[in-house]
């Protein structure tokens, strides 16, 4: 419970209506999309300016009050969970377009802007914001930056980090810092901007971001192919990426497709059922590109990698094919899945897939396992669905044991325990499989420099 004097000071900063104590508000703002922890913040505060954020952080330092930053709360690793009486600072109100410069092809926005709104703004300017994923309709730019969000276009456009030209942040000590100021070239020592990208709110609060925009893409075609063997998806990727400039290369299993068709009412891409499906997208400016794509498809069929396939004949059909992949994550939530978000280099993917598949068959013989992911950048999403007879605690205990073994495999293949969802609470016990002891000590030193009193998102990333 917050002391009355702290309540009064917070009200002085943001106004009484922007300080929330109701149980529904604490629950809504106190957790992300993980289901393993209960929301238990002391309050939720909704600042409307960077200066108000600064005042809140300085007050928190005076009172030794821990802060959990809150964006769209679409995270999957517990990074936005407030379970120990923390103050949730939600950036929802800092959501405006602050500046747009068509010459620089950049836009400065508040951290609370919804990702989809930024995509829409870019489109209205004849431009493109390429970071895209299933939660773009509710995730916020600040949260995307804090977790270095990836998504379905990484194979061509890269992660969020590639598009952040500048940041305005309030660090854990309560200082307002402007980082890089939108410059394309700025070779003046350490680029602190990149420390905040992917920091998961442990160094401070991202308040504003200058985002680089891209040219609008050309018309795209989408192809879905049926593949029987897991490892051969990588062969298909290698074949197509050698001759086509792919903007996406995704995959999903038959089980994932069955769930989406059953619960979303979508139509199967073709009548032939296969164990796995590869979905790829490419821009085309001439019939030659389409001819090349069809020739590559026919080659994949001839060598036995692909069983069947379809290519979009219109933009509406392309969108419908994408829904088969994009709607998987939202569909699976009703089974409270335990998610593994992992990655290795594409050159090691085939061997890694074989080892993980064997591990899953041995450890989860009675569990339903759903595979999908952004395989074009080496990112796999392994989802284990909770059986109805299991409690959440029983299910989590079983899955944790296997996460250790997956971590050991990732260490062997020099991969990552978190490709794009962040570490948060969920993955911090496995961080040592991807980061050395020296690296982790350096990360703790960086946190001390930005957050000397350890008030920013404590317990996340590492203890």
Automatic annotation (TrEMBL):
* The keyword Flavoprotein appears for this protein: yes
Give the cofactors, semicolon-separated.
Answer: FAD
Q: Which GO terms describe its biological process?
A: respiratory electron transport chain
Output the InterPro entries linked to this UniProt entry.
FAD-bd_oxidored_4_C (IPR004113), FAD-bd_PCMH (IPR016166), FAD-bd_PCMH-like_sf (IPR036318), FAD-bd_PCMH_sub1 (IPR016167), FAD-bd_PCMH_sub2 (IPR016169), FAD-linked_Oxase-like_C (IPR016164), FAD-oxidored/transferase_4 (IPR051264), Oxid_FAD_bind_N (IPR006094)
Molecular function (GO) terms for this protein are: FAD binding; oxidoreductase activity
Residues forming the FAD-binding PCMH-type domain are: 37-216
Pfam families named among the record's database cross-references: FAD-oxidase_C (PF02913), FAD_binding_4 (PF01565)
Q: Where are the transmembrane segments?
A: none
Q: Which residues form a coiled coil?
A: none
Keywords noted in UniProt:
FAD, Flavoprotein, Oxidoreductase
Determine the domain of life of the protein's source. Bacteria
Q: Which family does it belong to?
A: Belongs to the FAD-binding oxidoreductase/transferase type 4 family.
From the Swiss-Prot or TrEMBL record, give the protein name.
Putative FAD/FMN-containing dehydrogenase
What is the species listed in this Swiss-Prot or TrEMBL entry? gamma proteobacterium HTCC2207
The major lineage groups are: Bacteria, Pseudomonadati, Pseudomonadota, Gammaproteobacteria, Cellvibrionales
